[in-house]
Amino acid sequence: MNGPQLNELPDAAEQVRPYVSSLRREALQELTAVRSLSDGFLIKFLRARDFDVELSLKLLLNYQRWRKESPEISRCLSPSSVLGLLNTSYHSVLPERDHTGSRVLIYRIGQWHPKDWSAFEVFRVSLMTSEIISMETETQRRGLKVIFDLQGWSLGHALQFNPSLARKISSVLSDSFPLKVRGIHLVNEPMFFRPVFAMIRPFLPDKIKQRIHMHGADFCETLGDFFSSHVLPPEYGGEAPEIEELCQDWTNQLLQSENFLQQVAAHPTGDIAISPEDALI
Predict the structure, then answer these.
(1) Has residue 49 got a pLDDT over 60?
(2) DSSP string spanning 10-69?
(3) SS3 for 265?
(4) pLDDT tier at 276, thresholds 50, 70, 90
(5) Would you tell me which of 55, 104, 123, 148 could form a disulfide with 49, CB atoms 3.0–4.6 Å apart?
(6) Spatial contact of 203 and 167, defined as CB atoms under 8 Å apart
(7) pLDDT for 222-244, tens place per residue?
(8) Which residues pair with 185 in a beta bridge?
């Protein structure tokens, strides 16, 4: 049975157990300070790499290393700490998946005011969402797609970025988080966003570069080539509820998941048993 076939099986399937056991054994040899790793934690990494144990182990170790080296982002996973940003309708996870089963995320950069919120705090919002949706079996299998709306991008936003942050962003997108990034869509991107994108791009693997699509200001028609109308809110050419309503819905989901997220922040090694119910999705 190959990786994609294994990916379709439930967590408790007998065919899955040897892969979980193998990844646990190898991970515990590398992470000498960790006592145990839950099945659910390990399966996230196996599904992200189609049950290739060697690649899953590399991803898991990168995840642990990234969190350890980025405490300013990963140590405080508290939605209430960035509630002011969330209440600007900055971010949403759309309720409907796309035709491939991928989760669809929207970030509205113009709603982020750099004088009020640092790039690290903004990045933390993304990490919190990623931790929650990575608990969903269907998202583990089908991955996610992201729409970045860059209307309102300013010099203040650009000054928040430097090569170190660019490296952290690219690392999460490519090899340090157990989620498959199936597409990155930029809309309303201004000319002066390009220097920041040029800073991030060299750190991205070719497969991610090939999944980046720039739509410009006339994005509604071209986004329709990738997403069905029932998935997208009307502001993006679709028929779903309005974006502000969807942003508020996801803010509520984040707030309801505060205890789960704080548990993840306190135990970055995964030395706890985490179930999908903990995420309150």
Answers:
(1) yes
(2) -TT-TTTHHHHHHHHHHHHHH-TT-----HHHHHHHHHHTTT-HHHHHHHHHHHHHHHHH
(3) helix
(4) very low
(5) 55
(6) yes
(7) 999 999 999 999 999 999 999 99
(8) 147, 213
Name the band, by pLDDT with cuts 50, 70 and 90, for residue 147: very high
**Tokens for 112?**
């982020």
Q: How far apart are CA 112 and CA 157, in angstroms?
A: 8
Q: How far is CA 130 from CA 37, 75, 159, 197, 275, in A?
A: 19, 15, 25, 21, 15
Higher-confidence residue: 73 or 248? 248
Question: How does DSSP classify residue 240?
Answer: S
Which CA distances in Å does 114 have to 41, 100, 172?
A: 34, 35, 22
Question: What are 76's two structure tokens?
Answer: 């405080």
pTM of the model: 0.92
The rounded distance, in Å, linking the Cα atoms of 135 and 277 is: 9
**With contact defined as beta carbons under 8 Å apart, do 102 and 142 qualify?**
yes
Please give the Cα distance from 49 to 43 (Å, whole number).
Answer: 10
CA–CA dist 209, 201 (Å, integer): 7
Pairwise CA distance, residues 146 & 148, whole Å: 6
Distance in angstroms between the alpha carbons of the first and the last residue of the chain: 31
Parallel/antiparallel/unpaired status of strands 181-187 and 144-149 = parallel
